[in-house]
Amino acid sequence: GVFAHLEMLEARAHEAAVKQEEMEQQEEKLARLKARVQELRLQRDELRAKVDLQQKGQLGKEGVVSDPAQPSARAVLEWKIKSVKAMLQVFYLTGISGKLTKRGVCFCISTAYEGTYLDSYHLDLLTKAEVQIHRHSVPIFIPLEQIAKKYLQTDIRRFLSVLSDHLNAYAGRRYQADQLQDRFSDRIEGTLQRNSLCNLLVFNYNVSRKSKTFPFNARLLYGDPCCSLPTEVTVSCTPDAPASLAETAAAHSDLFRCVALHKAFRSFSSAEGSVD
Predict the structure, then answer these.
(1) What's the pLDDT score for residue 275?
(2) What are the angstrom distances between the C-alpha of 58 and each of 45, 50, 84?
(3) Per the CB 3.0–4.6 Å rule, which of 11, 117, 120, 124 could disulfide with 134?
(4) Over 90: is that where the pLDDT of 123 sits?
(5) If we measure between CA atoms, which residue out of 224, 175, 164 comes closest to residue 199?
(6) Given phi > 0 = left and psi -120 to 50 = alpha, else beta, which region is 190?
(7) CA dihedral 193, 25, 42, 162 (to 10 degrees)
(8) Among 18, 5, 35, which residue's Cα sits nearest to residue 95?
(9) Cα 190 from Cα 204, distance rounded (Å)
(10) What is the residue-averaged pLDDT of the chain?
(11) 122: how many CB neighbours lie within 10 A of its CB?
(12) Which strands sit side by side in the sheet containing 212-221, from one edge to the other?
């Protein structure tokens, strides 16, 4: 009957949404692998540069042998500039750009989700004996201080990579919530509740069956701060709802874990529209 047809459509919509999400994940994985290749090439070039420095350091003026552990200051400076430029080129592939300043380096971390560019954040570093954060535009609820304490002095590339992961995940979660409110406001009952980090979303929405509307409640918790998909999802309907809606709530819960929030709602609407 109608319920069986609806379940079939929802299953197809779920399968299509999951496949699309898998394709996007594959594209993101390919981009990360390309960036990793560039990073390995950079490390190779750095090793070659160090070897060249050692070889040059052994020959001073007029062919006089100098201390191999003490290359010239000019050679060291040239190597550092070359290394920083190469590092900036690698980061550019992952949405991180930067430029040298008189006192250090200024980085720009651009965020995006599903090919849509979102906000950019700036980070001005001072390169002294210890690298210092001079100023930044990172939101206060992003754990910048903890990330810096762990990586900034020992591995600046890792520091920027982890910070970028946090910012992109936050931007992705916020983007999904915004899209849900903007594109499916007719299905949302009341206000979508979210905190500043957008790692907890609570909202009510309507599900149509046989020209009747039933309220559902959803609670999405994003336990991984570097992920834009929830780790815990609870979807429930009212106790007096038809028994078949409990299965629908379970299916919605599974879909919320796998695909972007607004894509899940798009698949719901397509399935219900086909039945109607």
Answers:
(1) 46
(2) 20, 13, 25
(3) 124
(4) yes
(5) 224
(6) left
(7) 20
(8) 35
(9) 7
(10) 79
(11) 13
(12) 188-194, 200-209, 212-221, 232-237
